[in-house]
Write a structure and sequence with these properties.
single chain; about 100 residues; 2 domains; two-stranded antiparallel ribbon; about 35% helix; about 25% strand
Length: about 100
Amino acid sequence: ECLAEEKSVYILDEITTDLDLYAREGLLSFLRRETEEKGATIFYATHIFDHLAEWATHVLYFSQAKVAKCCRMDELVEYQEKLKAGVRCPLYSLMKEWV
């Protein structure tokens, strides 16, 4: 169970970095429910991409303190190509290319 108060917008920076697998899974489940059931918006800065692609709707990528990419996941051509090619972790793979 998450101790956070329910909000309509969450701004999170590396919130799962030091969590164990169970705590991370619980927090991500809470956030997913917030978006799917309550329409919350989540801005989530992270370097850990597993389990995010299934429910992320947009990608915002910064490089050199500037927005380098901002689009919907379904409009992210490079990601869609990796999905079609059967790449195991397409979002992680794409982010590795960008950095």
